[in-house]
Design a protein that fits this description.
With 282 residues, the protein is α/β, with parallel strands linked by helices. It is 53% helix and 13% strand. The relative contact order is 0.10.
Length: 282
């Protein structure tokens, strides 16, 4: 039986991780503005063929847009205009409110599924891609009531193959949540590493604590700058909270207020414990 064709626009970390998990079940076409990225994706065996966007859309029953957030809206809009009436288009962007607003009045909005997998790595590119990155992870679907039954069914079929677990929420809820659990930790990692940049030669003496708290600082600026700008209102509000916490800590240290500092650390311990218990359950 002939395999269905899926087009993946953007052959970086996330696009190729999806391709890796799907390429045994579907024919995968890769599309990318970077010839080098396409060659790497093909060399690693993630995609079967490379095509221009018009050809890929004409051949595919499902199109996955895995590009940076700053140009996703225009790409999705163009793809929807070219797509046949039974074609499903979904994206993997980590911000959703601006995207969903921009596409809300598109004539083919029902063919679009706004999705975001809670998976990633600090290293970008197809060389870091793997289907294991997605296994058992949550994938958020936003404004699902605006997607047709056919589009949702097509998307859920792919999620099932990838062992992704769908959860549903609004784009506003999504972006607030991502600011807390994804975007703020990224900002803190960047800030911590940048604060030590004048003494960067000293990091050769650092241990596991430095490693675990700055791992995310190795992430790509090309990916993260657009994300932080797209979700800036939520992120800036949380940065204010971080600043307040640091001022509190500085005050407790300066005044040697052991009970207050211990209480703050205990609260931090409790948050970490909740996260660890979730991982045990999963």
């Amino acid at each position: 039986m002939k395999k269905e064709t899926i087009a993946i626009i953007g052959t970086g970390l996330m696009g190729c991780s999806f391709a890796h998990g799907l390429n045994r079940h579907f024919n995968i076409i890769g599309v990318d503005s970077s010839k080098i990225a396409l060659e790497q994706a093909f060399h690693h065996g993630f995609i079967h063929t490379c095509e221009d966007i018009e050809t890929a859309v004409a051949l595919a029953t499902t199109i996955i847009v895995a590009t940076p957030t700053n140009n996703a809206s225009s790409i999705i809009s163009s793809v929807l205009e070219m797509a046949g009436e039974k074609t499903t288009v979904l994206d993997l962007c980590s911000t959703k409110q601006n995207l969903c607003t921009a596409l809300s009045s598109h004539p083919k909005r029902t063919q679009y599924v706004a999705a975001h997998p809670m998976a990633g790595a600090e290293k970008s590119g197809s060389q870091s891609a793997s289907k294991e990155l997605l296994y058992g992870k949550t994938i958020f679907v936003c404004e699902q009531h605006l997607s047709s039954d056919l589009a949702l069914k097509s998307a859920l079929q792919l999620f099932n193959v990838l062992n992704l677990i769908p959860q549903y929420l609004t784009s506003v809820e999504h972006d607030k949540l991502m600011a807390q659990v994804s975007h703020l930790p990224q900002v803190v990692a960047f800030g911590l590493a940048a604060a030590l940049s004048q003494n960067s030669e000293q990091v050769i003496h650092a241990g596991s604590g430095f490693d675990s708290t700055t791992r995310l600082s190795g992430s790509s600026a090309a990916m993260w700058v657009p994300i932080l700008f797209q979700n800036k209102e939520n992120i800036l509000e949380l940065i204010e909270q971080i600043n307040s916490s640091l001022i509190q800590i500085a005050h407790y240290i300066e005044s040697e207020d052991e009970p207050a500092l211990s209480g703050l650390i205990l609260k931090a311990n409790q948050v970490r414990s909740i996260f660890e218990q979730r991982n045990i359950k999963n």
